[in-house]
Design a protein that fits this description.
Layout: E1 2-3, E2 19-23, H1 34-45, E3 51-58, E4 65-68, E5 71-77, E6 81-82, E7 85-86, H2 91-99, E8 104-109, H3 112-119, E9 128-132, H4 143-156, E10 159-162, H5 166-170, H6 172-175, E11 181-183, E12 209-213, H7 222-228, E13 235-239, H8 245-255, E14 261-265, H9 269-278, E15 281-283, H10 295-302, E16 307-310, H11 316-319, E17 326-329, H12 334-345, H13 348-365, H14 368-391, H15 398-424, H16 433-453, H17 458-488, H18 490-494, H19 500-518, H20 520-529, H21 534-564, H22 568-581, H23 597-601, H24 603-617, H25 622-645, H26 649-652
Parallel strand pairs: 1-11, 2-3, 2-8, 3-5, 8-9, 9-10, 10-11, 12-13, 12-15, 13-14, 15-16, 16-17
Antiparallel strand pairs: 4-5, 6-7
Length: about 650
Amino acid sequence: MIWIEPPMMVVNEPDRRPSVLHIFKVYYPDLFGGTLTVIRDICAGLKDTFSAAVLVCSRSGGERQIVVNDVAVERVRSFGDVLSLPAAPTYPWRLWRRIADHDLLALHAPFPLADLVFALGLGGTRPLVVHWHADIVSHAALRFLVEPLMRRTLRRASAIIVSDPVLIEATPLLQEFADKCHAVSFGVDVAKYDRPATQTDDINTRGRLVLACGRLVPYKGFDVLVRSAHARNFEVWIVGEGRERDNLERLIRDYGLQDRVRLLGSVSESERVKLLRIADVFVMPSVTNAETFGLAQLEAMAASRPIVNTALDTGVPHVARDGLEAITVPPGDATALADAIETLINDPERRRRMGQAARHRAITKYSNTAFKEGVETVYRKVVTEEAAAKGAGSPAPGPRSQTAGFVGAIQIAAALAWSDVRHRYVRSLLGPFWMSIQMAIMVAVLGSVIGHLSNASAVARLPMLAASLTAWTFLNSVVLDATTALQGSASLIKDRALPPVIFLLQCTFRQALFAAHNAVVPLILWLALTPRDLGGAIVALPGLVLFVACTMALSLVLGALATRYRDIKPIIESSLTLAFLASPIIWTPEMIDRGSTVMRLNPLTHLFAIWRDPLASGHVAMTSLAYVLACLAALTVAATVTIAHLRKAAFWI
């Protein structure tokens, strides 16, 4: 771990400012919070030395490209949140496309959507700095899925910035990369909280106003603060918005505290400063280690407010220290919290003394200037080292070589697949279109049979049947191809001529070329038999991309397993046959019950629904989208682990 001392002098670039892309899940004006304030302060504080841009997710309408405080912000469309993660399937793609436009990447973690890009080795041409804001606490049960991605991101990073050294000691994942960690404490503009010259008394005349600020989310512990006000004699004002508002309002009514506890919602920054000036006590009642620093309590310290905080294993009790600037109580203990508040409410002199100590600590320990210079030092060091490495012609570090290797593997796999298809039909009159003819015959036969089994028109059913069979043939062929791909390339793998992953990726590209030829059949039927509405086809494209991504990830995992364990291949073949018969691929909606347990739990039901439903009705069910995104996340983690173990493929063969 490295503690950053502010530099004595900052030297500006003579030519142009290096550009930084800040990567996070949300930004102003969609939400207000501590991490967003940090990003805003970094962009504003370094504007003379680094140009900044922000890439985030957004479920609000309006412009995708906006400007916030002179910073360009791109908002990628999100369909909501799933386990606190934006459902933004195109975000990894946009991030990958934006990487080359910037000199430095600044990831504000945790953010698994971005980890997915870096863990797959994409974007290795630019240095990465990770701002570690918190560990995954709220959904710790799912940590095993995302921790491998986070570990690969941290390994890929050139530097990791934390707000307090205690985070390294308390976070096992950070301990693995302690040599990369830099402690840069957050800062606050103390002058903004100066009281007007006409106001000489630091103590509110009523002496019983308690203020708390933050997003209304469970880990903030505002429910504990509400319960602490029961049968006490102080008022509580809570600033902020979030999904817990309804629960807090219900709790306030249940305890009959409507006259003493108020939820003020979101307020402007100037209004929040005024509230901090008139408050008697500031409370940070957070209950989990998701609260790593507590920027809100630092702002209250700048306003000379005494603090009541909780004894978390993070930087929170280190910023405002027990007995000096704060009274620290056990997290989740409403009685202890109420006693601490009343201790300060009943002792104006102690409030004044602790408030002065808090402001002095904010000025001397947590100035905005020190924060800005600390971050700038890390950024400049990383950019300079990257430029020096390129100038000297030295190879990039290991993770970046893996990045280049993975991108190169994709290019080689695509080239091999194209060459394979060309040579396979070198003397054929029709080439791969023989498969198109076979597909047309199969569609005609099955369409006729299904027409006799159901009340639906056989002709009207043909376009969707053809599209479903084309997609199924692609998925089935990719998986079966992958189960023998490594054995078929045994000599090249043993000689270390090419990485094994290339031969698994080749299966996807080869079958994609065949699928493109087969797609002629549903396209012709669609043009001939259905109204030419392009809206549904456009909506279906993201679902089709997810379908292909899931197929590729599944082929990587099953291909490796079938090579390592030879009994797996016949099991896969039998399972695919059963899956075809038990899934709504050829059956019409009238012939199946999509609400049955088998259909609801069958991944293929949702995998086909996310692109077929838009073609049929113009929209897709959110349950199917969430199911597929969850499957894709699990498959991506499994594929990442698989790629790491493919180095042993020569021994498996």
